[in-house]
From TrEMBL:
Transmembrane segment boundaries: 38-58, 70-88, 108-129, 149-167, 179-199, 247-267
One function term, GO molecular function aspect: ferrous iron transmembrane transporter activity
Homology family: Belongs to the oxidase-dependent Fe transporter (OFeT) (TC 9.A.10.1) family.
Subcellular location: Membrane
InterPro entries tied to this protein: FTR1/Fip1/EfeU (IPR004923)
Keyword ATP-binding found: no
Lineage, broadest ranks: Bacteria, Bacillati, Actinomycetota, Actinomycetes, Kitasatosporales
Membrane topology label: Multi-pass membrane protein
Main location: membrane
Name used for this protein in its record: FTR1 family protein
Length: 290
């Protein structure tokens, strides 16, 4: 449940911040007449994301077991790829997100109502589709037969909307770079579990061999139906009897991805780049305090 809460919080807060930045900029520049097209674009994006999630959930139920496992495994791999790209992208651009959105909005204001709708739709729609796909993959991986994963996602989204509202009202100051760095790192851990389970699905679909080659089996020590087994499953997608391929995929993804993500320099953090004169002048330097 915690992993799904984290997904809802992380993805929902991205979308909430985008909405807050767009609306606040229009209010500040005296263009309240453009707010309605922005909400239309946001509403369309939310509806399409929900429809996409429904298609994934109900459409897969009509398939055979092998086809369900093949679809689940394939989409899990795709979802992990998208989420990995997203956390690295946000890691680099969090500090410049506001100026980037303002630039897009200025261009859309010059083009008219349709461009405003499209700008809001594209800004929120990407997060919506990524969230729907990754949530579906994560819930599919949890597969505990309870509504807890969906409850976790709903609570995460609700928290994100509330935090976004506080951010808009000026009651909350968020260090976006730090927030997206640490939640991104946790999301990489969740994604590693989803990826490993996705490969297990592909093994069950008979697309990849090795289903009976277990790396270890500690089901007697950590029963899947115990409270701690359920907790490990919900947070890390832990499986007490993984295959050799699952463990290999988990390690090969998690270790280098986390190392690169938390690297002090390089494209993961955006540090080490030479700042342009505009970037250097965007923040007044502060004298050291005693």
């Amino acid at each position: 449940m915690f992993s799904n809460y984290l997904i809802g919080l992380r993805e929902g807060l991205e979308a909430s911040l985008v909405v807050c930045i767009l609306i606040a900029y229009l209010v500040k520049t005296g263009r309240r007449d453009a707010i309605r097209p922005i909400w239309i674009g946001i509403s369309i994006a939310v509806l399409i994301a929900m429809a996409f999630g429904c298609v994934l959930e109900f459409g897969s139920q009509e398939l055979t077991f092998e086809a369900q496992e093949a679809l689940g495994g394939s989409l899990s791999v795709v979802a992990v790829g998208l989420v990995t790209w997203m956390v690295f992208w946000m890691r680099r651009t969090a500090r410049h997100l506001k100026s980037e959105l303002h630039g897009r909005l200025d261009a859309a204001l010059a083009m008219g109502t349709g461009a405003l709708v499209a700008t809001a739709f594209l800004a929120v729609g990407r997060e919506g589709l990524e969230t729907a796909l990754f949530v579906w993959a994560s819930v599919h991986a949890a597969s505990d037969g309870t509504p807890r994963p969906l409850v976790g996602v709903a609570l995460g989204l609700a928290t994100a909307v509330f935090l976004g509202w506080l951010f808009y009202r000026g009651a909350l100051k968020i260090n976006l770079a730090k927030f997206f760095t640490w939640t991104g790192g946790m999301l990489v851990v969740v994604a590693a579990g989803v990826l490993a389970y996705g490969f297990h699905d592909l093994q069950e679909a008979d697309w990849i061999p090795g289903l009976t080659h277990l790396a270890f089996d500690i089901s007697d020590t950590i029963p899947p139906d115990s409270w701690y087994g359920t907790l490990l499953k919900g947070v890390f997608n832990f499986q007490p009897d993984p295959t050799v391929l699952q463990v290999t995929v988990w390690l090969l993804y998690l270790i280098p991805t986390l190392a690169l993500f938390f690297a002090p320099v390089g494209f993961a953090s955006g540090k080490g780049k030479v700042k342009t004169p505009d970037e250097q002048g965007s923040r007044p330097s502060k004298a050291p305090q005693a």
